[in-house]
Amino acid sequence: MSRLKAVLPGCGLALLAIVGALVVLSTGPLAVAPAGLLSALFGHGAPDAELALALRGPRLLTALTCGAALAGAGAGFQILFRNPLAAPDLLGVSSGAGLGAALALLAGAGAAIVQGAAFAGGLAAGALALACAALTRSGDGRLALILCGVVAAALASAGLGLVVIVAEPYSQLPAITYWLLGSFTRATMVEALIALAPVCLGAAALLWLGFRLDVLSLGDEQARSLGLPARRLRLMALAAAALMTSAAVAVAGVVGWIGLLAPHAARLIVGERAGQLIPASMAIGALFAIVIDRLATAFGPAEIPVGLLSAAIGAPAFLLLFVLTSRRS
Fold first, then answer.
1. Measured in Å, how far apart are the chain's first and last C-alpha atoms?
2. 3-class SS letters over 202-215
3. Mean pLDDT over residues 217-240, rounded?
4. At residue 320, does pLDDT exceed 50?
5. DSSP annotation of 169
6. What is the pLDDT of residue 19?
7. Nearest to 248 by CA among 283, 211, 198, 310
8. Cα(124)–Cα(130) distance, rounded to whole angstroms?
9. Sequence spans of domains, the chain
10. pLDDT band for position 46 (50/70/90)?
11. How far does Cα 225 stand from its chain's mean position?
């Protein structure tokens, strides 16, 4: 019974995210009733329902995937480092992905190659941070990882600045700038499904770690006293979070604040335990992503980049959550 009570909040949040997705598809342009959308999912819907699903489905799936990925990675980082300010770009993954995409755009590559380059760049930055931390042989592995992540992010940002300087100002530079501001509109259904695979793999790894993350957050000595391989488990968790972040940035560009805000909101609902916090954070992150994506097209024909909206909404929301958490504690 206690396990059921622990799972119910996360299931309720996941159901809320699904309902939010149906509401988005059933309102706005090409609005279709939920019953028609469900029929279209199984190939038996009306032509207008199938058209709405074909045109708006990839964007919605991209928003759900990226929101869940960034929030799950942020929750994993916050648990692992015992730092409420930890975010998915802690190891420089977001900056590395931005550099990879910018280089591909500078070379005039297509959308698929740009996304592949972003994915590779994010993983390369995360691997660089992990390798540098391993070379330090520091007693406090978490501090070494944070510092090496800052270095990896700085190097990627410097490379990105160089790309911006040499980019052609009338064609290449606008494309690079627009990509860096974040958008859920670029991905096709195939690309969204490809991004979904590494996100699911990383999320499965974090959920499998479960209570092990709680033990790791107490320190390596505590983990070893319980017979857990602290170093190996930490690397697995970091690799899973970096994989999720790289996939999200590769398909949507740089969208901030979701990975920082969603875990704090979930923590108020389900508590601190990793097995509950990570899925709840992913559900809230997915819901937040589809909300800001809907708002991106609500102010006229010109679409607002979701990266700007996530910062404009996420910053005051995070401040509100911080005040509520402080008063509660």
1. 27
2. HHHHHHHHCHHHHH
3. 79
4. yes
5. T
6. 77
7. 198
8. 10
9. 2-328
10. low
11. 33
In order of 85, 174, 217, 223, 225, the CA distances from 79 in angstroms are: 11, 38, 6, 14, 19
Written as six digits, the tokens of 113 are 């190659």
Cβ neighbourhood burial of 184 (10 Å; 0-12, 13-18, 19+): buried
Most confident of 2-11, 155-164, 249-258: 155-164
User: Where does 2-328 sit in CATH, by number?
Assistant: 1.10.3470.10
Two tokens at 216?
A: 């790791």
Tokens of 250: 């590769």
The band of 254, judged by pLDDT with boundaries at 50, 70 and 90, is confident
> Residue with structure tokens 């401040």?
319
CA distance 96 to 86: 17
Residue in this structure with the two tokens 């074909």, named with its chain if needed: 54
Exposure pattern of 143-162 as b/e (b: 16+ CB <10 Å)? ebbbbbbeebbebbbebbee
User: Which pLDDT score is estimated for 127?
Assistant: 87
* Alpha helix positions (H), the chain: 2-25, 34-41, 47-81, 93-106, 111-136, 141-166, 172-181, 189-209, 211-216, 220-225, 230-252, 258-270, 274-296, 306-328
Query: Could you report the per-residue pLDDT of 1-16, keeping only the tens digit for each?
Result: 444 445 556 577 777 7
C-alpha to C-alpha distance for 267 and 303, rounded to whole angstroms: 32
CB 111 within 8 A of CB 120: no
The torsion angles phi and psi of 42, rounded to 5 degrees, stand at: -100, 10
Residues 6+ apart with CB under 8 A from 18: none
Amino acid identity at 12: G
Rounded to an integer, what distance in angstroms lies between the CA atom of residue 193 and that of residue 207?
21
Cα distance between residue 216 and residue 81, in whole Å: 9
More confident residue, 204 or 328: 204
Question: What is residue 45's predicted lDDT score, i.e. its pLDDT?
Answer: 62
| Nearest one of 177, 150, 152, 151 to 163, comparing CA atoms | 177
Please compute Rg for the chain using Cα positions: 20
Distances (CA, A) of 250 to 27, 124, 167, 289: 28, 13, 20, 16
From CA 174, how far away is CA 166, in angstroms rounded? 13
